[in-house]
Design a protein that fits this description.
This protein has 137 residues and is of the alpha+beta class. It has one domain (2-132): 2,3-Dihydroxybiphenyl 1,2-Dioxygenase, domain 1. 20% of the residues lie in helices and 44% in strands. The protein has helices at 17-26, 67-74, 88-97; strands spanning 6-13, 30-31, 35-37, 42-48, 54-60, 77-85, 101-109, 115-122, 126-132. Strands 1, 2, 3, 4, 5, 6, 7, 8 and 9 form a nine-stranded mixed sheet that branches. A hairpin with a 5-residue loop joins strand 7 (101-109) and strand 8 (115-122). The structure holds nickel (II) ion. Nickel (II) ion is lined by residues 9, 11, 56, 80, 82, 129.
Length: 137
């Protein structure tokens, strides 16, 4: 965590986007169309509601999706938080000094307007995602 981080979303591993999204929609959230993310091999949808944190649902595309491991171990569960940064490399450099380990290198993510994203893990924080983006995404 760096002082300049801006919160973007919480990511929830789900078995079925439709089953989970329906519960949020009943609570007043708006659900985006599902988007296939080839990097993580998942289908993603965004749930938004004014004044509430944005929620990302990630469901496995097939048995090779990494998110299956999370679902097998924990069931449906929030498993990452995402923050906007100005520059991914600079943020990663600082976080490595703080014992964060890179889980996936920066790559363009179709689910977030082709912004560059990467994942890091710290045993006292868990999994975080960084997105290099203008603040208006
Ligand atoms: Ni995410």
């Amino acid at each position: 965590m760096l002082e300049s981080f801006m919160f973007h979303h919480i990511g929830i591993a789900v078995k079925s986007i439709d089953d989970t999204a329906a519960i949020y929609v009943a609570g007043g959230y708006t659900c985006s169309e599902a988007i296939f993310d080839p990097i993580q091999n998942v289908n993603i949808c965004w749930l938004t509601k004014e004044g509430m944190p944005t929620v990302e649902l990630l469901a496995p595309q097939d048995e090779h999706s990494p998110v299956n491991r999370i679902l097998e171990k924990n069931g449906v569960i929030p498993y990452h938080t995402c923050y906007i940064v100005d520059n991914v490399e600079d943020a990663v450099k600082e976080l490595r000094k703080m014992k964060y380990v890179m889980v996936s290198k920066p790559e363009e993510a179709v689910a977030i307007n082709n912004c560059r994203v990467c994942f890091l893990f710290n045993k006292n924080i868990g999994l975080i995602e960084l997105v290099e983006a203008p603040a208006n995404i």
